# Entry
Amino acid sequence: MDFSITADQAAQIERLRVLGREHMRPAGWRADRAGAPLPPDDAFFTRMLAEGFGRTRWRPHGSAASAAAAPNKAASAVTQVLLAEEGAYWDRGIGVALPGPGLGEPAILSMGTPEQQQRFLAPFVDPAKPIWGAFAMTEPSGGSDVANIKTRARRDGDDWVLDGAKSFSGNSGRAQWIVVFATIDPALGRAGHRAFVVERGTPGLTDFRIEKKMGLKAYESTSFFLTGCRVPHANLLGGEAYYQQRSGGFKGAMNTFNAGRPAIAGMAVGIGRAALDEAVQVMQAQGLWSDQRLRDRLERHRRKLKGALLLALKAAWLADQRQPNMLEASAAKAMAPPAAFDATAFAMEVLGLAGGAGEHLIEKLFRDVKALDIVEGTGQIQRVVMSRHLVGLPN
Ligand SMILES: Cc1cc2nc3c(=O)[nH]c(=O)nc-3n(C[C@H](O)[C@H](O)[C@H](O)COP(=O)(O)OP(=O)(O)OC[C@H]3O[C@@H](n4cnc5c(N)ncnc54)[C@H](O)[C@@H]3O)c2cc1C
# Structure
């Protein structure tokens, strides 16, 4: 494994650093102070669109653009981890708030037919204004037991009728479409899963409500209901054939998750690094850096973050080599958020009473970091996955 950062990666990181310092952190801070997500027409989003954000990596099959731009391929997983770490250093919430197809994109790319990819992703190739896509798996009854989702899908002629509730879906209230997972029969478990693209304004897609969050306030996490929500069969991702071949949509969802775990680990490390950098500034300003015990603790947190990042990079590198990375991805996801949480808690201690006043960036980072242990499979669930593997049980 090669640990060197290529010139191209270094340039991308540097560009993100500048944008992060000048635009992303101030915007995230503004949303946090307001206690609400930035509205879709906020000038920040237009600005970031002009900087090239908010676009899909999908290109029409066979187009000249696709041949030149390596069609439908994400940046390497290693690059994604490096950029996730740098982006979250400046503001993780604002990174998710950015326009674009979001978590729905990998699901459409991995499961969708070429026609569906064209229909749902083409608007994101060069959008005239900021637009969003979203992904909804989690339900009010719980998000960890993904195999047991309760939202029902019933075929009715040329349509499907969806009934159920979804929660904590990022950006879904402002999205053009939401990739919604439902089951045709709960008794079938994973084999019963189907993924639908539910378009904005579809009758029965109702009651959007922005959830309250302790951190990451810059983007909306939204709950909504599907009540007799009629979706054309053409919006069943992959068509029926996809599910006959692959035991339901569950694998599609899991692919989406596995691609994201090393990047989530990177984001946690980025938040932890930001907290430690802030802590160093406080230590310098208050003359605390002469305290060997504090320096020792600072170094220990830095070391744990570095170790977690190396593990995330290993998991990403395996993905880039098309080698199984489930264990490494789970280990990185299990390790990085607690390390980052401890780092922000240490920074809060350094800050002392000022932390309680809620006016310092460290306090915001302390609230932001917790979600990283929850999203895309909690720390406990990662440990369940790894421990089952250790004793040879199937996942
Ligand atoms: C900021 C944020 C953004 C999110 N964005 C999205 C999104 O865009 N789309 C989406 O679909 N979802 C999203 N989610 C939901 C997220 O995926 C779920 O919160 C997560 O899967 C956990 O589900 P839960 O919160 O319902 O907890 P539960 O599943 O109810 O679990 C509760 C607790 O029990 C533990 N637990 C559960 N089962 C076990 C077990 N077998 N062994 C040991 N411990 C267990 C869990 O680790 C957790 O600590 C988001 C969540 C947050 C906080």
About this structure: The chain has a mean pLDDT of 92. The longest helix spans residues 250-285.
